[in-house]
């Protein structure tokens, strides 16, 4: 009964403490509800059969050297040129080989380069620094005798589409901008929306979303609140934005709305937005071949500039469907920040080992624990404490393993939902077990004290450490929705 009352209290605590997060259904502009078909001239066949030459070069950037590969048509004259700007991650140039070669054979000079490793990591990302890299690479490309400087631009995918507008707003040397799967909302909004979509596909319980969203609110990374619209408002060049209707990673309708709004506010009407049926985040069909019309649209638009900069139909293609808004994740309050969570875990770990360490110190000093009541009452309490420590450790490991499981299944979701439900059930059972152990261990200690037990100093340390550490873990579990109803 006591454990049930404590569980209700913790569940209530979990509902009242965290900031609310409940994305609303999206109200899209009427223009996105039924899009006209993409003009036939944009997807007309392209003869990507020309001979090309490949050249490896190096470009000096701020604090590093960028390795790059240029692919250029062997046909005489000056050609339009395109620099590929990577998305999130290591950004090696090999990932763009297929489309870079295809475009080069279609008459466009392409350059791909390895993303910098200094000044870019998982926690700290300077999009302005990456934009400077893109401009330096573009400047190297514009100096080539086979490149038409008036038609040399940047192509950015995903995270790269936050970088390209910054570069375009800084320099008129950027003749055009191609944005592929561009979020145009903050990284935090993008990730939270993608998380919701992935969990819906995995049939995950509502508590899983609450756990991950509250964990995201505690993450302190400098780039997660990046606002893309100021750079878009400063973009004066023609823009081609390509989206896939089966992209689970970005809120594509809101991304298009943000793009058109920012460009309109900046006085730039030269934009082309196209939705490709069935395309995913990388413009491919289920991670395989490129979506029909993607490469053709890209090549025809670039080679047709400046005539293709202002199409008669700015937004066209397959009609996109986005169910919910991409809401900003509220920042966690001070008591739920990453530093406090880390301190909680450290205190719990110290509490679990404090008792054995204190007992060891007593033995090393040649002292002995009182034998009378201790011999009878302490061993079962100590056993309870050990079980609590193992349960707490098991809960932490289970949560980490569950998050890894979700990441893996977000890539390949076939048959994943039973494993997701089973993993969440294990976490909930361990949380409840830890709660019951805390209550029963407290009752055992109180009962032993009533029977005349006089704990030694090491035993006092063990009692305070294990019960206190487990109590901290229970409060943290309540905040992260492990006791919430429905599950």
TrEMBL record:
Pfam families: Peptidase_S9 (PF00326)
Domain annotation Peptidase S9 prolyl oligopeptidase catalytic: ranges: 96-284
GO biological process: proteolysis
InterPro entries per UniProt: AB_hydrolase_Est10, AB_hydrolase_fold, Peptidase_S9_cat
Keywords recorded for this protein, A-Z: Membrane, Transmembrane, Transmembrane helix
Chain segments annotated as transmembrane: 334-362, 388-409, 421-449, 461-482
Highest taxon of source: Bacteria
GO molecular function: carboxylic ester hydrolase activity; serine-type peptidase activity
The name this protein goes by in its record: Peptidase S9 prolyl oligopeptidase catalytic domain-containing protein
